[in-house]
Amino acid sequence: MREKKRCIAQFTFYDRTGIQAYLEKMAAKGWMLEKVNNFYWQFRRIEPKEMHFAVTYFPKASEFDPEPGEDQKYFYAFCEQAGWKFIAQTAQLQIFYNEAENPVPIETDACVELENINRSAKGNFLIAQSVLALCALLQLGLVVADFNRDPLYVLGSNAKLFGLICWTAVLIMCMTEVVGYFLWYRKAKKAAETDGSFVKTWGSRKFQLGMLTVVLAVFVLHLFSMREKIYIFATAIGFCWVALLMVSVNLIKYGMKRLKCDKTVTKAVTFASSFILSFGLMGIMTVVIFRAVDTGWFEKEPVTTYEYNGHQFKIYHDELPLTVEDMMDAESDRYSYEMRVEDSWLLTHYEAYQNVRMNAELPEMRYDIFIPKLPGLYDFCLENIMEDFLEEDPSGEFGYCFMDSDASLWGAEKVYQYQMDRREMDRYLVCYEDYIVRITFYWTPEEEQLRTAGEKFTDFKDWASK
Known about the structure:
This protein has helices at about 15-30, 70-80, 110-150, 150-155, 160-195, 205-225, 230-260, 265-295, 325, 375-390, 445-460, 460-465, and strands at about 5, 30-35, 40-45, 50-55, 85-90, 95-100, 305-310, 310-315, 335-345, 345-355, 365-370, 400-405, 415-420, 425-430, 435-440. It is α+β, with helices and mostly antiparallel strands. The strands form four sheets. The chain has a seven-stranded antiparallel beta sheet, covered by helices on one side. A three-stranded antiparallel beta sheet has the order 1-3-2. Helix 5 (about 160-195) runs antiparallel to helix 6. The protein is elongated, with a radius of gyration of 32 Å. The two termini are about 50 Å apart.
């Protein structure tokens, strides 16, 4: 039977009544609070009993204090005389317990207690939540900027979607905390000034834990969806960076507190070390990633290579749903076949290339296949694919546009052919029921060749499921 238990409390800083009720419930189950920190609350096993807990706020306290100040020690002694024994603290939040049946409350003046809570919140809780909210807004702004630049790239990237969900959740959690505090404070201040009563604090523990659960679940899905080595490596590097930074900074802070350093010095050194270590570790990890990229560790292993004019080129033999050889006689040993796949919860994007060797003259082609996974995304993807093409001619000088083409050749629902200055180009946008094909031929295909391409793309889902 374990004697220690650690829990993620996730209580709002000012939720005095919620914390007290939680600790009383834990004591009744046989668990007594032992210590608290930024990551978890630790409990020890006791005989189940009815106990009373009190949460107070000491504005002068700080998480950088090497030990309680004289005023704080006097306050502890005062509480001890009233039967309240100190358990633990985190920053300004102080926790006491009392085994008496009907103990006298520590705080008896609602106005004074409210002022202590407000001063403590301004010195810690509100600043931290506001800074975190600003960070979330910045990260969301970067994702939005990427979306405006290339929407299909964002929709097809689980990493981008995870970042969007994660930082949106952080922003909502921070705003819930801050707005909730001011709404509660206004109500509590009015009650304290009117009849001296203390309004129960408003807590969002279940909501916060629910949001964290959603983020964790999405992150697990993101991990299992990773295919490319570079994404796995980058995620591992990110975890190492965060873990090393948090552990290093906290070790420095706790080390200086144990050495009884002045809280001003401890605070300055902690902030300076977090800044220096943040950039230092990021620099080291960036060098590691670039070294890995330079050595080709992330690249797909080619079947073979060849040299041309002093340069080395790679040959791939990925299986493609449509090849030049399907449409005409061609020497397959003169080609490189490459397929890239970006797969997310919203969109799957296949990129296929059939490139001829540099020392050969044979027809080439490339195509993209977009598979939206939500019905409403189909039209959005089609519109953005068209806009992407038209953006190649922002001035309108070349007269880029789309024209309807014979869909029966492709076995599709709708086909568009690109046009420049009223001249047909060998680029097509082929719309099937639930996926879109964008293909460029580097030759002018005949009708029979287009029909063959259509047959291959019509059976694409069967090919992809193999």
